[in-house]
């Protein structure tokens, strides 16, 4: 006796959250059944393995049919085929677009192209996430990217409107889209200690301050592309380190203000010029795409690592950065105060976030 | 009477991409009704076109309005080649033809293609303007309302229940026409869908005519089926119960339709019809669309003439004097005789209803059924081969005979079976059959026709004049104990139609009752039940040699009695194993396949307080003097006894011991004939000869002398009870549960198994089939575990044998949650009550011969608790007997539904369960519904798709149906030539069933409704050819579209508002989130 056909269709579509998770995680039906058996569900319900198999198949089939709609979540809300309560619809969408930290760290900043997709098996082996799940996550990134990339208006709002995601998840996607568009390097060994959250935090700051949208809210791509003019202007900051007097004055201002307040004062004093040179040079280099991509590598190399090797406590870093950016206002010979604030305001936030073990 | 049909095409959305180059579609719409077609403009390059068309107007006859569906085709415009069809929508405009139902159809409909399934949606508005005023219109045939519900619909009152109506229409199946060889599968499927739609419309119109002729205004329990006879054609047949219904909200608004049905008025609408009344043999309507009609010309005219005589016999309705039925008094006895005899004179005193107004059902005799094997043969051979006497006869029939005046048609076949049912009922001392249904099973050229019902004695009042006053009087006059009256035997004790073991009723102790009762109806509301009920199934397979034509039919005929016998034995065993004594909703389905016959009987077992406690099951071995064998037997015996004890506990069957003691003494010793009693009348004489009484022992004895019987015992014990928190039944309500909360989940589950063809035996087959059903149930319990505590209601199994080694089982049911805590409370009160009853019985005993009037007290074992408790607290001193009438009154009113809002509200809640307590009334509304309401009820909160509930039941727990919008009767075909790509057979069927649900919901929503009640999937024919990567499926569903309001909302919201609420608010197609 073999089962040829075995289906269950409810007027309200049944969604089993546990099975949904297994499906999203890319397990095959038999693996999912095995995992469910291990969860002790048979003992709890007195069901047999055959029942579990049939139930899992049913759910998988339903999810498979729903997947097409999940690709365009507003369709899920308006379709007539599956009657699903709104709370469940939200859950389906949110979980479908959720991603694994390990996976996103691998892909973040990479071009969402066929080439990257081919590397997914490597990522799968490396992270232990099933290839299927990797593909779903990658496709989600790519789909969101494609839809919002050339849209005007706030990136987060656009994502929320077209994919009906929660605020939190929409922000994460905004970061992913932003990183993918600007191709920031995140995979270097030096950057491995950083979490997706760290990058997302930086992305949000950069979107708020460094993109076209920060000055004009009516342009295409406003939140996705960096403000080219701004990047060009950043060259002007170079005088802060090129002009010897300015650099000395800056150093003395900072040192005076921080004397006695910093545990690592002497180290700071000794390193000031190096650090300042590093930060300003990062800014000046941002005109080149290649250097934009290396932004995080540079920040870590030029600032985070020197400080870390001298064991600066986080609070000292904060005090230093605050004073460092504020003191520029007292430099009479320096005219680009607004530019400096736009640059340093964001950078300070990023550096503080990046500064940890 | 002509009318104007107006259609507006508003917009489309989610259309498929038809032009690969642009990834867009240039869509336009064709709107077709009859032979007239309109087109919208082409809306270029959009997947969400906004046509916003003008009103397309069709001027048509009302006959066409009833027969024809509105056909909307969405196409992709192509400049250079033929336009590609995207899909179609068929809209049945019948609901717009009743004055009380929907006034407009407006909403999003899925665009359906038989090859690709649903492809986007289209927004359509449909209206009908009729050229005459409403009053005149109501007299026309399209004013007749149809209900699938097999009880009097909730917001109506039955004035008269007229009786059986049936009709049948035959046509050639387009799938088998020569043209099918050259047209595409899509064209062929669409031709079939359209034809069935047309035939359904025609059938409904014809039934409507009959109802008008009987002076009714509605058909209740309307069941339409189609038989795919393959080469020999396609039959659409329907049965129903004609009634005169009165809308409850406006009791005085109009008098019963029989009030002034002046002949002229009636005939005007149909004067297109050549002779509406005579129905001479042959096609009765002008032949359109090649539809051959086989209206049962002969039988019908006979019937109408006989009912004419009825009318003249009775003083009440004669001369169209309307509801002048109040003078009753002195004539009562006379009237009763007359009407009863009138009923007997009716050709078929059948009722498709399964639940009745109180007082309607007087006695129940038992199940009557008849089957007949027929050959669908094209060869002209009118020989009648009587093999099995008059029941299991089969005939060689010339199918082409419809061209001549040959009376041998499908009508004759059914007439013959009905005749037999009638005679069986008569043998049981009953003059009517209730819970009547008909079915067929077809395999190649063999067809088994089955009919079954429950023989009953009815209160003739309702058949002529069913006013509440009338039946109240009647009730007092007859003085029937409500809780047990229907159990009392209708037949003569000394002249019993079959051996039965009678005792005095355990409830009233005055009348005789059988020890077991089988019926096809729902449990009467006033029946006294102890404990809970459960689903009981008997499953059986029999191998059959493959054979052709006559030999095949003979083989089947020979097998049938044995199958029925075994099915019956199984049912009886399982019933006893559950410790119960009655079956309700019994449905025995026999399915014929190439090489086997399958029998599946489902019913709901209960313990009726009025019937005696069932005896146990005893096992006896025939091989003597074998120690180990004896041991084995005693082991089995122990297991059985344990199971019975466990079941009694599980289903809370603990009949009050007190009453047994009391009853014990006065009851005369069991009748000399202490044989096993059967209450079921077998359909044929042969079976009765088989002696189903199972030996002459008091207890049920199973003799295990061969492997067969061993297997039986095993299978008895392998039936696993549902996991705790689950109950199941196949009736409307679960006996013993009355505190439903409002969460419902209707579902359909289909399974097909392939048998390994190698040397199949009956045993192996039985085991496979049994496992299939058991596993299916287990799966359901598992899937619905989040709803615990819950009950699967109206569990409906259908078996078909699509191919040699395939068995297909389709289940449709609804899971309803209930409140466990309340359940406990009610059981408690229940026990208390039975104790109380026992004591009243006791009192009553003493004054037995004297007290005739106050007898009405024990007749209400469950007075509505409100009154009961109230009185208990405030005026407990007053003897209960004094309040008897008022108690009676209110419990009556709700079911009879003639009372006004106030009582109705209370009644609604009460009606749900057979046990009524205040606890339920109070708790059920604020808690259960209040919580769920917010989640499920507001349809348009943030998604634009309104929630439409579907249920096979006639009610929605925790809600009140405020309006019936019309019948939903839909037929779909889906075919694929890329089965693997669509996820194999499971993926294909899963998607199709989901699509069918979606289309039903969309139609209901467009009518302004928010639920379908009495939903049924009548057919699910699935064929596959995996080698060719093809599959095809046909599904036929029906139900009643309704508007419901949550009981908790009732006080706040006026009844009109929900209708507006539920209109899909998304005409523009905008995203609201």
From TrEMBL, chain A:
Q: Name one GO biological process term.
A: platelet aggregation
Top-rank taxon: Eukaryota
| A GO cellular-component term linked to this record | nucleus
What terms describe the molecular function in GO for this protein? fibroblast growth factor binding
Pfam families to which the protein is assigned, alphabetical:
FIBP
This chain belongs to the protein called: (raccoon dog) hypothetical protein
From TrEMBL, chain B:
- UniProt subcellular location: Cell membrane; Cell projection, Ruffle; Cytoplasm, Cell cortex; Cytoplasmic vesicle membrane
Q: Where is the composition biased (Polar residues)?
A: 274-289
Predominant subcellular localization, coarse grouping: membrane
Q: Does the keyword Nucleus apply?
A: no
Boundaries of every C2 domain copy: 1-109
Q: Where is the composition biased (Low complexity)?
A: 290-318
- Compositional bias segments (type: Gly residues): 319-328
Gene Ontology CC annotation, any one: cell cortex
Query: What is the residue range of the signal peptide feature?
Result: none
Question: For the region Disordered, what residue ranges are annotated?
Answer: 265-330, 661-690
Q: What does this protein do?
A: Required for insulin-stimulated glucose transport and glucose transporter SLC2A4/GLUT4 translocation from intracellular glucose storage vesicle (GSV) to the plasma membrane (PM) in adipocytes. Binds phospholipid membranes in a calcium-dependent manner and is necessary for the optimal membrane fusion between SLC2A4/GLUT4 GSV and the PM.
This one is known as C2 domain-containing protein 5
Gene symbol of the encoding locus: C2CD5
